[in-house]
Design brief:
2 domains; five-stranded mixed β-sheet; three-stranded antiparallel β-sheet; TolA/TonB C-terminal domain; about 30% strand; about 260 residues; globular; alpha+beta
């Protein structure tokens, strides 16, 4: 009888968990969001020089598709820092809130911490301080355009011996040892956004591969900076789709069979 009662209790707990409201979540997941924030984080020069610091908190609402319908800064630091926080926040693509596993309108909060000490450490770790856009002027909206909608498609900014995107991936990709040991081969299909500042964001795998291959593909793409897409003389956000192959007998032409727009 005790065993049966315990089973009923477990089933009840599971049903309660399923029925709970789940707030909007970043499309890349919380762990990957932290990586994205570290790459895109910038500190207004004036506030940095004056050692102005603090936490910005933004409350926001989303529709059933995860689109942001409204937002407001409920804890501010300064005009410059608030603006920088909003700009980074607006780059994030969100999954909708759910109730009983069904998409619903949602509410959540987003918080960013600004500290000169932390920014200095981040600068050393990532190898750059302030983010310098490769093209100006920039579109003021946060619309993401498809490749066919823009005048000039994004182009990777490559240095050294890597003169093509294929060669860059070939020279930098590290085939995971765990995948080699069990003979995992195949491809990872990624879609992401190239921001107005030329940095990649919201990198998502539409086709996964085990043994650490998916993570390695995402790492490689996160290393690449771009000249952004151009529309009517302005840098805009644009979508990108890339497939990266993992094969034991790899060659320079085998990494990127598809670089078309993905329809993010």
């Amino acid at each position: 009888m005790l065993r049966f009662t315990s089973l009923l209790f477990m089933i009840f707990i599971t049903l309660v968990a399923i029925s709970q409201y789940v707030e909007p979540m970043p499309i890349v997941g919380q762990k990957s969001l932290k990586v994205m924030i570290k790459k895109h984080f910038d500190y207004p020069e004036y506030d940095l020089s004056k050692n102005i610091s603090g936490n910005v908190i933004i409350d926001f609402e989303t529709d059933k598709s995860g689109n942001i319908t409204s937002y407001s800064v409920i804890q501010n630091v300064s005009h410059g820092i608030d603006s920088a926080a909003i700009s980074l926040f607006r780059q994030i693509i969100w999954l909708p809130a759910t109730y009983e596993l069904k998409p619903v309108k949602g509410k959540a909060s987003f918080e960013l911490s600004y500290s000169k000490k932390i920014f200095d450490k981040l600068t050393k770790r990532r190898g750059y301080g302030h983010i310098i856009p490769p093209y100006i002027p920039m579109d003021t909206s946060y619309k993401i355009y498809k490749t066919k909608e823009i005048d000039m498609v994004p182009k990777p900014i490559l240095e050294g011996s890597s003169k093509t995107l294929n060669s860059f991936i070939y020279n930098n990709l590290k085939y995971p040892e765990s995948a080699i040991k069990v003979g995992i081969e195949g491809e990872v299909q990624l879609e992401f956004v190239i921001e107005k500042n030329g940095l990649p964001s919201n990198i998502v795998a539409n086709k996964h591969l085990g043994g650490g291959c998916t993570e390695e593909a995402i790492r490689i793409i996160s290393l690449i900076n771009w000249y952004p897409g151009i529309l009517n003389g302005y840098a805009v956000r644009s979508e990108k789709n890339i497939s990266i192959k993992f094969q034991k007998s790899q060659n320079r032409d085998g990494f990127i069979p598809n670089q078309q727009g993905s329809g993010i």
